[in-house]
Each structure stands twice: as structure tokens, then as C-alpha cells.
UniProtKB/TrEMBL annotation:
Protein name according to UniProt: Four-carbon acid sugar kinase family protein
Pfam families noted in UniProt: NBD_C, SBD_N
Organism expressing this protein natively: Cohnella herbarum
Top-level taxon: Bacteria
Annotated keywords: ATP-binding, Carbohydrate metabolism, Kinase, Nucleotide-binding, Transferase
Limits of the Four-carbon acid sugar kinase N-terminal domain: 8-248
Domain Four-carbon acid sugar kinase nucleotide binding: 277-447
Amino acid sequence: MKKNQLLLAFYGDDFTGSTDAMEALARSGYRTVLFLEAPTQDMLQRFEGIRCVGVAGTSRAKSPAEMTKEIKPIMERLSRLDAPVVHYKTCSTFDSAPEVGSIGEAIRTSRELFPGQKTVSLLVGAPALGRYTLFGQHFARMNGEIFRLDRHPVMSRHPVTPMHEADLRYHLRMQLDEEIGLMNILELEGEPEQVGKRFREKRKEEPAVILFDVLDEARLALSGRLIWEAAEEGERFVVGSSGVEYALTAFWEKAGIASSGHSQPKTASISPSDRILAVSGSASPVSQRQIETAMEQGFHGIRISPVSLADGGSLPQEMLEQAIRLLNSGESVVLYTALGPEDEAISETRKRISDEGIAPSQVGEHIGRQLGRWTKHIMQQSGLRRVVIAGGDTSGFVTSEMGIYGMEMLLPISPGAPLCRVYAQDERMDGIELALKGGQFGGPDYFAKVRDAALE
């Protein structure tokens, strides 16, 4: 085996989802580095034993034209890496719409880079995250209960991409008007050779996409085998959630495909932090509960005003100085833009940003870049070395403002939201510990768990 023989390259449509995919690979021992732009071979050689590489993007918050501009050069670079599988990573709740974060547009843009590939495999379910697909219908767990996606308390009311259709084939057809097949749960039953024959027969019909049902770990591993075998036959480009990574690692382990021998960057130990900064741009009920719980556990909460978010010309000095003063006194701080989806600050913020002449499709980027500039300022003034960013749509813009070029998992905290080690050219930022979590991830005490995370 070559020193850095890649198995997989992926692009994540938001940052929190990208760390989710990285965690799925790293926890199985496959060393994975997540970059903020497509890496060169020289960059990859810095990381001994790397088996998988990812690029964290922001396409989920963009219009189709903006998506194409971002995705195409990155996917072109990834397609030229010597990786058998190239994955466009979506959210496990398939957040998307024709006008923003279009997965159909991502498929149209990317598949032309894989000449000769007629069919794209699509796998969205991930049992480890409480995500399941049955006869094309998608389900997601929340607070211990499983909801069909169009009845999910959060996803059916998502402020940007509300999910009104649970059948992923119909939802995707609104973005990609082409044939979408299904490898249903019954067709995934039986001996692997028998199931493989069924899958090959479906591929012969050359649908644009074949969606996999996902219910349990056994059939997920079998789906991983089918995706890997199709890649060996030239169908390298796949789409879906971190379920793709969970499926492939399950198959790789059964097939004896070697891992890196270690799943995290070499470090003597990871110590708990006496103080952290949590920054939330999420309006989900899950994030709301996490913010409220953190404040109950001693975090000092600071609400970010809509006026500050809208004003891109100056720093909110009073708020920043308050946060720095508290951190320097040993307190942990949570900055937040909203408490749940009903918070009146959401509509006020959107109105004020609109009044500044910023288009609705640019709101997420505007908020994210504001939060990123403020986060970096606070960290540099306080000497802080551990931070949490909550909110999938804004986290990518936050991290880009922080001057980071790569990340690697240090410790799992909650499925889909690990603690990472940051790589940056700026010595002040290099080596900081960063946790990125989407709005639906983590338990109520997630922020405290990040603060207290340790490894001897």
C-alpha cells in the first residue's frame, strides 16, 4: 500500500455535515483530513497515512448558479485524485430546494466530470444518526421519537428549506427532472451475490439516480459493498449523507481493507477546558434547548442583536468586550442569534439585513461572516483555544473568516458533531480545538460536554 493511498474523497455541502462525514470515517480508523478548499498532492503529503480527504463547502446555503460556481472546480479537483469513490455529501435530512441548496443541481454539475457514468447512487439514511429510508420515504429521530420527514417538528418548518415531501424521489425530482430508481428494503434482502445481481439489473436500465433504502446496519454494510463494486466498474460519483461513509467503512472492515492504524492526530493528551466560547447561528429547537441548558450550567448567555448582525461596517464593541471580559475571568460564554424557530429576532434580523440591500440568498453568508469575524476577534483577545460553532448553514462562513485551512477529528462528543483539531497558517489559530454542530445534532448538554472533553 502506498503511504497515502486514498479510498474516498468527499465534498460536504455545509461544514457541520462535513465534520459528520469525517467522524464516520475517523471513528473506524480511516485517517481523514477535512480541508476548506480542494487540496493539492503536496498538501496531502503533509499527513502521513491519510486514507480519506474531504472539502467542507457552503453550497447548501446557495442558489443554483452560486452552487455551480463553488462546486465545479472542487469536484473537478477531487475527481482527479486517485480515490475510488468521490462523494457529494448532503445533510442526513436532505435539506434542499430548487432555489437553494439544490441537490439536483449538484448532481447535474458534478456528474459531467465522470464521463461514462450513467447512474448515480444516492444513500441518505444513517441509523447511527437516527435517519432511515423505507420505500423511498425518509424518517428522522428527534427526542427519542421517529418522525416522517414531512411531519418532523423541525424539518417540516425549516426556515430556508422546509421539507413538505418525505419521499426523497419526489423531493429530488423537483430539482432534477429525470428518472430516479429505488433499491428498496426488500430488494436488499438475501445473499450478497443475489442482492448484487438485482442492483446490476437496475443499473442496466440507466436511471439518473438509484436511491437506497436504509433501515439497519447489516443492510447498510451491504449497500456499501454495492456502492464500492459499482465504483470499481466506473461509477465513482455518489451522493448522500454520512450514511455513505458509514456504509463504506462497514464494508471495508468486512473486506479487510486496511485503515490508517490511527483515527486522530498524534497528541499527548487532550485536557478539559476551564472556559469555552459557543457561537450559535442556529434557530432550531435543539439548539435552543442546548443554549438554555448551557446557561443553566453556568455559561453566560449573550444575545446578538439584529442591529449588530445587519451592520457589516463596524464591530459591536460593547458586546465583544463583554464576552472577552467574561472569558478572561474564567467564565464560559454562549453568543446566540435566536432562541428557537419562533424567536421574533429571526424576522427582524432578515428585515434589517434586507434593508441593507442584501439578497435573501445571501443572508446566511452575511450572518456567518459576521459571526466569524467576531469569533476570531474574541479568540485572539482572550487567548481562547476551544470553541463551538452551532448552525450548519452559517458554520462554513464562520470558519472561513477564522483563517482555517483544515481540520481533523480529535474526539467524538455526540454523533455527527466531534471535537476537531484545526490547521491554520496563522500560529494564533493553528492547533485550536473546534466543534461544529448542525442544528439537529447533540444532546441538551452538548456545550458542557465540549468544554469538559478530555483524553488521557
